[in-house]
Design goal:
Layout lengths: L4 H23 L10 H4 L4 H19 L6 H30 L3 H11 L5 H7 L2 H27 L3
Helix pairs in contact: 1-3, 1-4, 3-4, 3-7, 4-7, 5-6
Length: about 160
Amino acid sequence: MKAIQIELKWAVLFTAMSIGWIFLEKAVGLHDEYLEHHPIYTNLFAIPAIIFYVLALKEKKKKFYKSHFKYKNVLISGIILSLIITLLAPLGTYVSVEYVSPDFFENAIKKSVEIEYFTEQEAIEYFNTSNYMLQSLMFTPLFGLLTTLVVGIFIRTK
């Protein structure tokens, strides 16, 4: 357990930051008034997500590996971090859509039908808690691995 303590800490922080991001999106109107801009601005989440990976892996390098961090170690740590974040992602999604922004799906369905992006049935099938949880389970490990591969190049010990 001690070996993954840093990854566990950062995965919990990442999940809290993700929920905070949803709160911010809602606060600025991306879940209702400016919903049509949501698909663009939600991608900015990648910036704090990458920063969290960098900070987590730097802490692992400094505290666990005593600054001697081979690329293989970076990959292992990043994969563990990604797996824990992936396990927590459905919980983060649930909290976000049920408590932080409970009207998001209703608004998204209405808006996507209004702009003729989806039929009503397609929108209902796409914008729901279980589909978003499934998406988080699919994309979180992929994003985490890609981020780890790139970040690892810069923070490994040469």
